[in-house]
Design a protein that fits this description.
- The structure holds 2 protein chains of 2 kinds.
- Chain A is of the alpha/beta class.
- Helix content of chain A is about 35%, strand content about 25%.
- Chain A has one domain: Rossmann fold, CATH 3.40.50.
- The model of chain A has no long low-confidence stretch (mean pLDDT about 90).
- By secondary structure, chain B is mostly helical.
- Chain B has one domain: MetI-like (MetI-like fold, Orthogonal Bundle), CATH 1.10.3720.
- Chain B is built from 13 helices and no strands.
- In chain B, helix 6 crosses helix 7.
- Chain B is flat and about 85 Å long.
- Classes of the chains: A alpha/beta, B mainly alpha.
- Chains A and B meet through helix 2 and helix 7 of A and helix 8 and helix 9 of B.
Chain lengths: ~325, ~325
């Protein structure tokens, strides 16, 4: 995999996903675009309901009815994923792209042994003899830092701790050596020390395998730790994207700023307070016409309420969708 | 595990004891007796018969005698229906016929019920699901004697005359089609309904999403990952039912004239043939208790999280 390092792996263009509920169409993802290269770790940050998981599920073709991709394209290694038939989609899942989930306690089937589930992940995609598959499984367990793998293979998920189960989830996600790992809040359900261990493990494995990772989280601390690049999502759109440094040191979008201000910092002075973002997330059934963040934005202008802001390029990869960046033109137009 | 099984067997024996007391005294509470009929024998003959079978003694004494005999493996002899033949011999003779019909009925009911339940759950909200819901609800709602009559009219005379209407001792396999179908219909529909609701639950679990994310094929996900987690309620329903069905469905055996244990059991009650009533009741109860034990052990086999030794007490 490493020889392709830096080549384009995934291109998402103007992806739109909607859920067709009895109450109406919920535009969970309203047109997002990004690129991901081999070996790159991208963080997608956003609050609950911002569409970050939905976006990831559509890459895997795992959207549950009534959710549907209604526009845009997903291109993986030059192939149009949305045009895949069932068979190709199955090959992608777990083969080229793997996923780990938020809740390791319930993500493993309780009635089968760990070994059974790991071996199954491999034999689904590769025709290997049982003995070989088992050996690979043991290797993977060792890679994810599980002691006494022989014994663990024979155990059931309920006999293991949450941290260990997440390690096993990682092992079975990686056994087919995918090009891309989607981690959907993999540390959210774990306690803090285990979180740190799992992050450490993922960083470690990423260094060894050079696979690309999409790291979905609402935890900016996690992002800073593991990601190369960050996209901040709000109400189904990416509002700001840039390198970790750009996002943390020169945040531009008021929402990104708000997220950073509401996060505790080690270097904060004792008198500094955390500032929450005022208001509540938008109702996705009736999203506002303009910038969805405008109602909560302290710098909102007239145009913000009427028109979605175009992207402004700030640096090589630093983009932001905010009218404030084009304040001069806006004022000129209004005058 | 062994300790648990021993415990359960002892509890089962206690239950059997209670069942036998209840049945014995209830049976004797019912008016009439084994030697009454349209043309009752003379009082002298009756007294003699009662003397012979010990029916003139106090009830408690009769019970103790019956129980002591039972503990020696003696179920007593029939008073009336097959005069003086040992009850155990009669049961051994009748049970296989019932069991044959019952096993076929349960076999198709389980296979079809689980399959249809899975399909309905997977296609939830779609047309297939709605059709299956109508079919299974009707199947559950229709009493056996109604389905039996309809099937008889349709296949054994009224519309087509293609299947025999009664089962004799030397009947061909064709004679078993209608009784087996009728007997299995209600359980099949119930199994389908239980399977559907349990499958809906397990298909919504996180590990199913994991299975999809691994790239497994849908049938594989349904039958390997979801079904096993959905089996507990189905097994709980099927286990004790097997005992009941294998011992003979009374209605089906009566309608189709199957010479089985279920029909015989009811006839024995009408005839007040006390030893046969007691014998079949004990047999049936023991069967149900045994099936319940098997079900509990199956729980452990299906779901390794279940710890049997903690469930008892």
């Amino acid at each position: 995999m490493s020889e392709k390092n830096g080549d384009l792996l995934l291109q998402v263009e103007d992806l739109k996903v909607s859920f067709f509920t009895p109450a109406g169409e919920v535009k969970a993802v309203g047109g997002i675009s990004y690129q991901l290269h081999h070996g790159e770790v991208m963080g997608i940050v956003g609050e609950s309901g911002s569409g970050k998981s939905v976006e990831a599920y559509s890459i895997m073709g795992l959207l549950q009815s009534p959710g549907r991709v209604v526009g845009g394209s997903i291109t993986l290694s030059g192939e149009d994923v949305l045009a895949y038939d069932k068979h190709q989609m199955r090959e992608l899942r777990g083969g080229k792209v793997s996923m780990i989930f938020q809740n390791p306690m319930t993500s493993l089937n309780p009635v089968y042994t760990v070994g059974n589930q790991i071996v199954e992940a491999l034999t689904t995609h590769k025709k290997v003899p049982r003995e070989e598959a088992r050996r690979r499984g043991l290797e993977m367990l060792e890679l994810v830092g599980i002691n006494n793998p022989e014994k663990r293979m024979k155990q059931y998920p309920h006999e293991l701790s949450g941290g260990m189960r997440q390690r096993i989830m990682i092992a079975l996600a990686l056994i087919c050596e995918p090009d891309l790992l989607i981690a959907d809040e993999p540390t959210t359900a774990l306690d803090v020390t285990i979180q740190a261990q799992i992050l450490e493990l993922m960083k470690d494995i990423q260094k060894k395998t050079h696979m690309a990772i999409i790291f979905i989280t609402h935890n900016l601390g996690v992002v800073a730790d593991i990601c190369d690049r960050v996209s901040v999502m709000y109400a189904g759109r990416i509002v700001e994207t840039g390198t970790v440094d750009e996002i943390f040191y020169t945040p531009t979008h008021p929402y990104t700023l708000g997220l950073l201000r509401s996060m505790p910092r080690v270097d904060a002075e004792s008198y500094e307070r955390l500032i929450p973002i005022q208001g509540t997330p938008v109702d996705m059934l009736n999203p506002p016409e303009g910038c969805p963040f405008a109602p909560r934005c302290e710098h909102a202008m007239k145009i913000c309420l009427n028109q979605y802001p175009p992207a402004t390029q700030l640096g090589e990869g630093h983009m932001v969708n905010c009218w404030l960046m084009q304040k001069d033109q806006v004022l000129e137009k209004e005058a | 595990m062994i300790k648990y099984i021993i415990k359960r067997v002892v509890m089962g024996l206690v239950a059997l004891f209670v069942v036998s007391i209840l049945t014995f005294f209830l049976m004797n509470l019912v008016p009439g007796g084994p030697f009454m009929s349209e043309k009752p024998p003379s009082p002298a003959v009756q007294a003699m018969m009662e003397e012979k079978y010990g029916l003139n003694k106090p009830l408690t004494e009769q019970y103790v005698t019956w129980l002591t005999d039972l503990l020696k493996g003696d179920f007593g002899v029939s008073y009336r229906m097959q005069k003086n033949r040992p009850v155990l011999t009669i049961i051994k003779e009748m049970f296989p016929t019932s069991a044959k019909v019952g096993a076929i009925a349960m076999g198709w009911a389980i296979v079809a019920g689980i399959a249809l339940g899975c399909v309905a759950a997977y296609k939830r909200g779609k047309l297939t699901d709605s059709i299956l819901r109508v079919v299974t609800t009707s199947g559950v709602a229709l009493p056996t004697f109604v389905t039996a009559s309809i099937l008889l009219v349709v296949f054994a005379g009224g519309v087509w005359n293609i299947l025999p209407s009664i089962v004799g001792t030397s009947s061909s396999w064709k004679a078993y089609i209608l009784p087996c179908f009728t007997l299995g219909l209600n359980p099949m529909c119930n199994i389908a309904r239980y399977t559907r609701s349990a499958m809906l639950d397990s298909l919504g679990q996180d590990y199913i999403r994991t299975a999809y994310a691994k790239g497994l094929a849908t049938p594989f996900i349904i039958f390997k990952h979801a079904l096993r987690n959905a089996l507990i309620p189905v097994v709980s329903y099927v286990g004790p039912l097997i005992a009941g069905i294998l011992s003979g469905g009374f209605v089906v055996e009566t309608v189709f004239n199957v010479p089985g244990l279920g029909r015989y059991f009811v006839q024995s009650i009408n005839n007040r043939d006390y030893p046969i009533i007691m014998g079949t009741t004990i047999f049936l109860s023991a069967f149900v208790i045994a099936m319940n034990l098997i079900v509990d052990i199956l729980y452990r086999v299906i779901d390794p999280r279940i710890d049997l030794s903690k469930g008892v007490e």
